Structure formats: C-alpha cells, structure tokens
Amino acid sequence: MKISKGILEMIYEQAEAEAPLEACGYLAGKEDVITSHYKMTNVDKSETHFSLDPKEQFQVAKSVRADGSDLIAVYHSHPASPARPSEEDIRLAHDSSIIYVIVSLENEKRTCGAFTIKNGMVTPEPLDIV
Amino acid sequence: MRLTINGKEETVSDVVNIADLLKIRGIETPEMVSVELNSEILNRVDFETTQLKENDQIEFLFFMGGGQTRG
C-alpha cells in the first residue's frame, strides 16, 4: 500500500489531537495507492477501544464510490501501545478485504504498521511512504 | 430479482430477505455487518424478517472496531 507523507502526517496529527482517546478513520484510493483520508468518529470515546459509527461509515462509503475510488484501509491509533494489532483488534477484524492501519504514539514516538487480518491470522502489509 | 447492492445493479435469485442476501454474498458473520435498506439502517435482529423486493437498494459493510492492548 502506498501512502503519502502528507496523509500520514494528518493521521498522526489527528491521533495526537484526540489522545488519550483512540482516533480512527478510513483511507481510500485506487488499487494500492491512498489518495484520500476520512476522519471518523470514535463512538466509544475510549482510551483503549474504538468503534466506527455505521451511519458515518455508509456516508463515507457512498462518497468514496461517487469519487470513483475504493475504501482500501481503516486506521486507528494506539495512544500508548505498539503499532500492531491487539487481541481485540484481531477478534473484531471481520473484513478480510480491507487493510488495517495502526498508528502508535507510544513513548511519544510516532510509528505505524499495516496489516491484513483473515480468520485471526495477521499478515503485515508493506507500507510504502512516498 | 434486481437489486442495487453497494452501488451495483445485480440480479439475484433464491433470496427472500436480508439474511439470505448476506449468506449468498459469503458473509459468515452477519452479526458483524451493518445493513442499510433504501437509506434506512436496519437492526440486526431484523435481517431474517426484512423481505427484499424488486429495485431495493442495499448497502452493507462490516463493523469496524478494536482496541489497544491494556497495560
């Protein structure tokens, strides 16, 4: 998956602005190139959990489709843990077609990772920051 | 029956309700899916009782959630 430094920077800024709560959103584009970033509401408003709002999900899905793009990835932040899927992330990952991006702010250091998750199996996805 | 599913017109057969549709689309965890029928979000408990009709517009997507490891 290819993502620009600019979009990644916006995700980190969102994560830092919303910390200590988890932040979340969608990434859209064509094939494996991210071209758009959609901030979403974490309806859980939690430091350790996130859920997207289905109503917002449908709005974004339709908007992305109208732009001729696809939803490629969903992202969320781990304000105080590493940029890898937690047991809870894996348990709740039911969409094997989407890439799960996690940004971490652990120890005030920005890191990120991308993964696919299918039947509980996590596979790192190459992340090309361009 | 002709339906519009996630923006694409499709013809489906042997489908009576939302649960049937999710099943033929290979959704193994319908309890983790949100469905919008003609712009109204459905309750999951109604998937089996909500009948589909010609030209219905259906959107479905997976619940997205998770969390960081505690401690």
Please tell me about this protein's structure.
The complex is a heterodimer of chains A (130) and B (71). Chain A has 130 residues and is an alpha/beta fold. Chain A has a single domain (2-129), classed as Cytidine Deaminase, domain 2 (3-Layer(aba) Sandwich), CATH 3.40.140. Chain A has helices at 5-18, 54-66, 87-91, and strands at residues 2-3, 24-30, 33-40, 50-51, 70-78, 99-104, 111-118, 121-124, 128-129. Chain B has a single domain, classed as Ubiquitin-like (UB roll) (Roll), CATH 3.10.20.30. The radius of gyration of chain B is 14 Å and the shape is globular. The longest helix of chain B has 7 residues, at 18-24. In chain B, strands 2-1-5-3-4 form a five-stranded mixed β-sheet, with no helix packed on it. Chain B is mainly β. In chain B, 10% of the residues lie in helices and 32% in strands. At the A-B interface, strand 4, helix 2, strand 5 and helix 3 of A face strand 3, strand 5 and strand 6 of B.
Poorly predicted segments of chain A: none
| Low-confidence runs of at least 5 consecutive residues of chain B | none
Total separate domains of chain A = 1
- Write down the Rg of chain B: 14 Å
First and last CA, distance of chain A: 10 Å
The greatest interface between two protein chains, and residues involved on each side, is: A-B, 35 and 19 residues
Global outline of chain A: globular
Care to count the β-strands of chain B? 6
Number of domain units of chain B = 1
In CATH, the topology of chain A is named: Cytidine Deaminase, domain 2
Query: What can be said about the biggest beta sheet of chain A?
Result: 6 strands, mixed
Structural class of chain B: mainly beta
Average pLDDT of chain A works out at 96
CATH superfamily placement of chain A: Cytidine Deaminase, domain 2
User: What is the terminal separation of chain B in angstroms?
Assistant: 52 Å
